[in-house]
Amino acid sequence: SPFSDWLDTNYSPDAKQAHQIQAYLNAPRNELAVLDAEVDAAERALNALRTKQARLRRHIAAHEALVHPIRRIPDELLQEIFQHCLPTRHMPTLSNRSAPILLTRVSRPWRALAFGTPTLWTSLHIPIPRGRSEADHIALTEARHAGVAWWFSRTGHIPLSISLYWPPSL
């Protein structure tokens, strides 16, 4: 730059020098505009490639899932594995964050297998809900009743183990 001696200083150019600097900047500004356009084009191309890459990864993953070894485990063995997924320190609850309900959320085949395995559903811990009001308590109890009835419908004719917890009054 013909103005390199003034760069990074406190020098203040006069009007003529300012005009010369502005004229000098035309070429770098044009070059920058061209580079900006090239970068934008490259970013669009990169985004298109990333989209294509993600689509291809999903395609591959979906097909790899078809041949995953878990799909070849016999149902009887899966049922045994499911039994070992049940909580050991307490009875199962109506929670979708633990077995057996969690197992029904993995895939349709697992859902069908878990629902068709009555021994997964033979024990249940039932906390009796407390509402802030009588109406809340009734609504919570009715919802809990529906969940318990649904759970028991899975057991077939196998004996049940139930634990109840009634919290102290508020």
From TrEMBL:
<dbReference type="Pfam" id="PF12937">
    <property type="entry name" value="F-box-like"/>
</dbReference>
<feature type="coiled-coil region">
    <location>
        <begin position="32"/>
        <end position="59"/>
    </location>
</feature>
<feature type="domain" description="F-box">
    <location>
        <begin position="71"/>
        <end position="126"/>
    </location>
</feature>
<protein>
    <recommendedName>
        <fullName>F-box domain-containing protein</fullName>
    </recommendedName>
</protein>
<keyword id="KW-0175">Coiled coil</keyword>
<dbReference type="InterPro" id="IPR001810">
    <property type="entry name" value="F-box_dom"/>
</dbReference>
